[in-house]
Amino acid sequence: MDNIKMIAYRAETGMYNMIKNQLSHPDKGRKLLQLIYSSDADLIPDYPNKTLTVKLHNLNYRKDDKVVEYLCEKLNETETEFPGTDLKIIYQLVST
User: Fold this and answer.
1) Angle at the Cα of 31 (from 26 to 33), degrees rounded to 5?
2) Alpha carbons 37 and 54: distance in angstroms, whole number
3) SS3 letters for 53-77?
4) Which of 9, 14, 83, 95 has the smallest count of CB within 10 Å of its CB?
5) What does the alpha-carbon distance between residue 75 and residue 69 come to, in Å, rounded to a whole number?
6) What is the pTM of this model?
7) What is the pLDDT of residues 54-79, one digit of tens each?
């Protein structure tokens, strides 16, 4: 369990480092990430095109949505495949 917690913390730290320059208050970056983790998302697999779209629901403030859009762009640049499949993960906001 400690290993899983360590991996999750490192992933959160990596995402925080991606967005900290986009924040007006960098000290609130981890709280924003935790809000993203606990918010709703739609998962839309597209097997013919080999993609899995993760549509994140908008947050309460437009400034936070801008940071989420930026994070989605950066995560999409990694071209990550969903584990155990050949589906490339695409992140976006529902409103995009």
Assistant:
1) 90
2) 12
3) EEEECCCCCHHHHHHHHHHHHHHHH
4) 83
5) 10
6) 0.87
7) 999 999 899 999 999 999 999 999 99
